[in-house]
Amino acid sequence: MKRSLPIFVVLAALLVAIAVANPYFLDPPAFLAFVKRAAPLVILAAGQYFVIVSGEFDLSVGSLVTAEVVIAARLIDGTAAATWPVMVLLIALGLLAGLVNGSVTTLLRVPSFITTLGMMLILSGAVFLWTGGSPRGALSPQFRELGRGSLGPVPWSVLILVVTAAAAIWAMRADFGRTLVAAGDNDRAAALSGVRVPRIRTIGFMISGLSAAVAAILLGGFAGVSAQVGQGLEFQAITAVVLGGVVLGGGRGSVVAAMAGAFTLEALFTLLNLYGISGALEPAVQGFIIIGAVALGAVNFRRRRPAVA
Amino acid sequence: MTGIGKSFLGVRVLQGVDLEAAAGEVHAVVGENGAGKSTLMKILAGVHIPDEGTIEVDGRSVEFGHPVEAQLAGVAIIYQEFNLLPERTVAENVYLGREPVRRGLVDRAAMEKATGELLRSLGEKSFGPRDLVRRLSVAQQQVVEIAKALSLNARIVVMDEPTAALADHEVELLYTLVRRLAGRGIAVLYISHRLREIFELADQITVLKDGARVTTAPASSLDAGALVRLMVGRELDSYFPPRAAGPPGEALLSVRGGGNDRLHGIDLDLRAGEIVGLAGLQGSGRTELAKALFGAEPFTTGDMKPRRPRSPRDAIAVGIGLVTEDRKAEGLLLNQQVRDNAVLVARATGRPRSGTDRLLERVRLNPPRPRQEVRLLSGGNQQKVVLAKWMTVAPRVMLFDEPTRGVDVGAKAAIHDLMRELARDGTAILMISSELPELIGMSDRIVVLRDGRIAGELPAGPTEEAVMRLAAAS
Known about the structure:
By secondary structure, chain A is mainly α. Helices cover about 75% and strands about 0% of the residues of chain A. Chain A has 13 helices and 2 strands, in the order H-H-H-H-H-H-E-E-H-H-H-H-H-H-H. In chain A, helix 11 (about 235-245) packs parallel to helix 13. By secondary structure, chain B is an alpha/beta fold. Chain B is built from 18 helices and 21 strands. Chain B has helices spanning about 35-45, 65-70, 90-95, 110-120, 140-150, 170-185, 195-200, 225-230, 285-295, 310-320, 325-330, 340, 345-350, 355-360, 380-390, 410-425, 435-440, 465-470, and strands spanning about 1-10, 10-15, 25-30, 50-55, 60, 75-80, 100, 105, 155-160, 185-190, 205-210, 210-220, 250-260, 265-270, 275-280, 300-305, 320-325, 395-400, 430, 445-450, 455-460. In chain B, helix 8 (about 225-230) crosses helix 18 (about 465-470) and helix 14 (about 355-360) packs across helix 15. Chain B is globular. The two termini of chain B are about 30 Å apart. Chains A and B meet through helix 8 and helix 9 of A and helix 10, helix 11 and helix 13 of B.
């Protein structure tokens, strides 16, 4: 927990900065709107965390989100009755994509960087082929309710986020999570202690796929159907996780900090927006953050290590 | 070399060592594992800088800050693991980094011609300068290394266990090569454990023990027995817990005719309550045997009871545990807490893990802080965490590969006591150690491996000479 403290300080500072620029920001409705906007990224970051902490990467979640939204629009095509079956299908697709990523990475020993990069290209190619460039069909109002609507004053997205976060925290405290971290810290030692490393890493990928499905359902409702809806989300999610102090390569960092990293990124974008700085700068800002955070982590780690063990 | 001394992290590995090698002489440097042979040679080759002492080459005093300086002064070292680029040709490897140049381009023709001459001068006809190193056998690659040394006009060639990776018929070729080098007036420093080759080749023998020189003598003045006594001659000075009182119980693990790439015809029984020591030189297959029993590098032939494990997980299910030789690379999650490490096996295999804190007390973790990250612990405490990891699931058979390597004296005694306690509680134990006094002090019986086969078995408390003779004879 000591290691993840800085991100909470940064997040708090950013929230204060936003509140200074916009005094209404901390009012419940405005703040809930912020959380709602952040929810998909936070969920993706939580999913990405499970992959990164096990020592891998998942670059495919952005295109997976796009593919899911486009498929949902096409299959539902505005009919209310199709909503729930399609949602179940989306979840299954997310898990399947993770299963493929995980199996190819662990059983065929393709580095996950390549596996998921390939999956990203395959999915975006498939979407393009299937839609011919512009998505067809439409989401039903029932489908969009989850991303847009609310239960009383609380948006559905926020509720889903809370449930997701609780599940993620619980999973990381359970044997599953501890073993996943063990595989990320030292897969050789883990395997020699009886951990089924390929299996547990594959489950990590499946959780990431699942988080992409949930994010897609929220984003489809929130932002509507487009062929760009998931663009760049994989890097936002990885940036968020790294920003949370989770170490690339696995074994260190907490899921709470990873989610806080996502909130921080979203807060930063909000702040830039408030000061009228172009949204076009967002990728550049992300680039600086991801390099800076990793460099900082490396410097800290070296300093903390005993000189020679 | 005169009065060479060297310490690593405050541990003295060499002290006042003198070594003199004459031109045209084959000079064997021998000693047990850890006697300081490799460190001494690395100092000569400029890899390590000595804390004290001087080095002279051809009568000129030299100081090497870097291996390249040693090379330029005429010292070449040929390691057990070759430093060759597999995808390059022989000539490219020989002249790596100092290729002859003509008009700004590498002069391949000159390079290949010179390499060809070197190979011919070594009597090597089985391959040429344009062959890819990848396609050469280990013995041929060794010739490339030697050619490289010659191309540097080496005056002193150090060979570190050159026969370790060679087949029998290749060893003869190496002998010829070594004699040829000496015939050219080169001083060959020959490091080996194998008594036969030492007496076959060496003119002079220097014996190192515990970082100091015992003696330098002409090979003709010694025989195998005398040499072994010089290498190990020391008293059992430390205390070991008392051996098992009664006879061992039933066999909890049996292997008949177990074999794989590295092991052949292994017959072994591990019985309840017994500590079996596994002795052998480096490369004899000790670690491989432990890994085979544990299913990490399984036997491909033979029978094993209760069953032949297919994986470590399977072995754990059968009731086998392995404390690995390299605890940082294979034993621990360095970034995790003591507690997470201690329960890892139980967690991975879904078994109960009550009383972790009590266990950490039992292994005498000091101080017992279950939330501390393991990488911050001393070597001894780290090893105790590894022990706790296995004790949580109480395997019936425990394999210990170098359980006290790199731990302090106190932790060592604690680990010894624990091993004996486990045996008393009915665990069958296999212990590997390169430290003969430890192995002899702990074992109820010692099995000696040589070249992947069981060379023999000795009852409790044999002499070091007896073990070494079995391990090194050929």
